[in-house]
């Protein structure tokens, strides 16, 4: 059956489900098997939702899953209700990001109530991603990544927590909340430097923390660098550490050319991503009150 046929069938199922719900409210039904009618309606809403999905009518699918979720709640099936809210959220994601967030929040409330914090954290990440890409509200994205990190930490899932925290640090630095970014980078670096598998990443986090310090205050960056080398001797031989020393020297001499040269040389071996480029430019601008400038 094509999409429009599925859609017609779904609309009929929705009407039928509604009838069942209404009749379950009648006095006699309440005494005799009202719940059976609600269970049947639940199943119909879910089937209708899946047909709407085939027809790519995402709003209707989201709405049908929501109806099923509410009925599951009425039947005290919390887990099924949460699952339907998540399905609703995934459908709405394609058509109405704000409605998707509302449904995912409803699912999160149920999961946290049930003590299922890991799965609640996962849905906080989905909401954060909607705020990042669809609604472009970075402050709200940060809040949901922080909440996810909190839940992961509580469940001892430290590497998942760190992933969320690094997202927070990236955005915090972009929003010029450098202190917050520094704290996260230092904390994550400290927790990864003793792990043989993650040790390699620690130098990247110390590097990013030092850059955040540098934007605020060059002396702070110097002191931080000494502290990081002491904490993590392997950092001293890294290209990141050597670059920082060259940049600090160029800054002291207020030498724009030397600064640009050091960045260029580093970039020719390890490509600078957008974030690093932004931070390095912010530092460069403070040399001799430089104009907008460029790094290349």
TrEMBL record:
One of its GO terms (biological process) is intracellular protein transport. GO terms for cellular component: glutamatergic synapse; synaptobrevin 2-SNAP-25-syntaxin-1a complex; terminal bouton; vacuolar membrane. It is found in: Membrane. GO terms for molecular function: soluble NSF attachment protein activity; syntaxin binding. InterPro entries: NSF_attach, TPR-like_helical_dom_sf. It comes from the Eukaryota. SUPFAM superfamilies: TPR-like. Transmembrane segments: none annotated. Belongs to the SNAP family. This is NSF attachment protein beta. It comes from Crocodylus porosus. The lineage of its organism: Eukaryota, Metazoa, Chordata, Craniata, Vertebrata. The gene is NAPB.
């Amino acid at each position: 059956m094509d999409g429009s046929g599925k859609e017609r069938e779904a609309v009929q199922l929705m009407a039928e489900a509604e009838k069942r719900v209404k009749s379950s409210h009648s006095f006699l039904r309440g005494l005799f098997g009202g719940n059976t009618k609600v269970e049947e309606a639940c199943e119909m809403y879910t089937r209708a939702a899946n047909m709407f999905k085939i027809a790519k009518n995402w709003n209707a699918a989201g709405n049908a899953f929501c109806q099923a979720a509410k009925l599951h709640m009425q039947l005290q099936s919390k887990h099924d209700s949460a699952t339907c809210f998540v399905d609703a959220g995934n459908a709405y994601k394609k058509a109405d990001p704000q409605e998707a967030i509302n449904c995912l929040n409803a699912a999160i409330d149920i999961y946290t109530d049930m003590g299922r914090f890991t799965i609640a954290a996962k849905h906080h990440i989905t909401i954060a991603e909607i705020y990042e890409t669809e609604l472009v509200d970075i402050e709200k994205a940060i809040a949901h990544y922080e909440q996810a990190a909190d839940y992961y930490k509580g469940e001892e899932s430290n590497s998942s927590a760190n992933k969320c925290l690094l997202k927070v640090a990236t955005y915090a630095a972009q929003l010029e909340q450098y202190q917050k970014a520094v704290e996260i980078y230092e904390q994550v670096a400290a927790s990864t430097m003793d792990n043989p598998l993650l040790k390699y990443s620690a130098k990247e986090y110390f590097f990013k923390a030092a850059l955040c310090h540098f934007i605020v205050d060059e002396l702070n960056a110097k002191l931080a660098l000494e502290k990081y080398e002491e904490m993590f001797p392997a950092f001293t031989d890294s290209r990141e550490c050597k670059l920082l020393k060259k940049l600090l020297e160029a800054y002291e001499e207020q030498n724009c050319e030397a600064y640009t040269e050091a960045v260029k040389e580093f970039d020719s071996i390890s490509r600078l991503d957008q974030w690093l480029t932004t931070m390095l430019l912010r530092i460069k601008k403070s040399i001799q009150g430089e104009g907008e400038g460029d790094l290349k």
